[in-house]
UniProtKB/TrEMBL annotation:
GO biological process: pyrimidine nucleobase metabolic process; pyrimidine nucleoside metabolic process
Pyrimidine nucleoside phosphorylase C-terminal domain boundaries: 345-419
GO annotations of cellular component type: cytosol
Gene3D superfamilies in the cross-refs: Nucleoside phosphorylase/phosphoribosyltransferase catalytic domain (3.40.1030.10), Pyrimidine nucleoside phosphorylase-like, C-terminal domain (3.90.1170.30), Transferase, Pyrimidine Nucleoside Phosphorylase, Chain C (1.20.970.10)
Assigned protein family: Belongs to the thymidine/pyrimidine-nucleoside phosphorylase family.
Protein's organism: Clostridium tertium
Entry function: Catalyzes phosphorolysis of the pyrimidine nucleosides uridine, thymidine and 2'-deoxyuridine with the formation of the corresponding pyrimidine base and ribose-1-phosphate.
Matching Pfam families: Glycos_trans_3N, Glycos_transf_3, PYNP_C
Protein name per the record: Pyrimidine-nucleoside phosphorylase
Summary of subunit composition and partner proteins: Homodimer.
Gene Ontology MF annotations: 1,4-alpha-oligoglucan phosphorylase activity; metal ion binding; thymidine phosphorylase activity
Amino acid sequence: MRMYDIILKKRKGLELSKEEIEFFVNGFTKGEVPDYQASALLMAIFFNKMNKRETADLTMAMVNSGDKIDLSSINGVKVDKHSTGGVGDKTSICLTPLVASLGVPVAKMSGRGLGHTGGTIDKLEAFNGFSVELSEETFINNSNTIGIALTGQTGNIAPADKKIYALRDVTATVDNMSLIASSIMSKKIASGADAIVLDVKVGDGAFMKTPEDAKALAREMVDIGSSVGRKTIGVISDMDQPLGYAIGNSLEVKEAIELLKGNGPKDLLELTLTLGSYMLVCGKTARNFEEGKALLLKNINNGKGLEKLKEFVKAQGGDASLIDDTDKFPKAKYVVEVKAAQSGVISKINAEAFGLIAMELGAGRETKESIIDLSVGIVLNKKRGEVVKEGDILAYIHSNDESNIEKAKNDIIKNMIISNSLDKEIPLIYDIVE
Ligand code: URA
């Protein structure tokens, strides 16, 4: 078999066999297929696409490229949750302890942020001392004793995806449905959960820009999960504005804590209840969605979700006292108001732009090596659909560098569109794919 023939076949729009896909994945992982041939094949896949069978074979080839985590010594149905990436998306921080507080074990692998999207691990590191470097024994032990454990992507989980993703990132081949579906599902399958609830984002801050594409991506991932015996559910949710009000690591953690104290923003609460209910149904703790929602609300109101977050943070070396005293989180030196230049209705908040503004303030990474500033970011004061008068506060900039405030201010004003009316209502939850 030769890479040249595989590239040519896909360039002509033909279907690749399982053996050809495995030849590429194994050869590239071992360093036998050079980057230029892998890039050419990825571009051919980007333009000519893969069918469902090819996508499933690509997924399993990437799963088999490395280790598979065995979670069988954790009691109960292990449920994982994964978001395709968004701005202000702190859902995992409030959702996972909430679900664990109801007896469904959450043994989760999370990532760091890159570009305009944030990552759960970076956010949790706002708790002084918090670590995701857990031995396998501690990971299993914490999952069994407190019902929740979180690690980073360990060295050898789906190494093929790690290499392929890095190449896609620099060859403009990220936003292809088969490549995204296989990338996410290979990591989820290799990390061992019995059931997976996917939050598939749609909108300008997401990889999928239209509900139709997001639904097709969700369908693809649900089918892959089901084909290997993992119950998989896709929730299609809005990323046409940031989720909640806070963007930036400490700021987002504080908002997630507020949710568990019963003061969460409406959209973050609705998304948490939706994803959480499906996790409880998968974990067989709730018989249906409505029952799941009621259980989650109960554990917000009685404080059990918040207590579980404290146990979780403490078990992973973090300072859980910050949960009771959120003033102790890292704080930015400057907090600056951004005011509306005109009256009207907020008709659009460009999510991707807000992710980039937060990144430029230091909240995100431009490259994998960048060091992030946990204290900085943006807190919105208004969301889409709200009426504002000229001079009203639209948002607060949290910065440690006086010189970047003016640009952030201008960018916020440019990307928070004020119109005479709202042209369409956008739902938070578009659809559920099972
Ligand atoms: N997240 C992933 O892990 N992979 C993708 O391709 C896109 C988002």
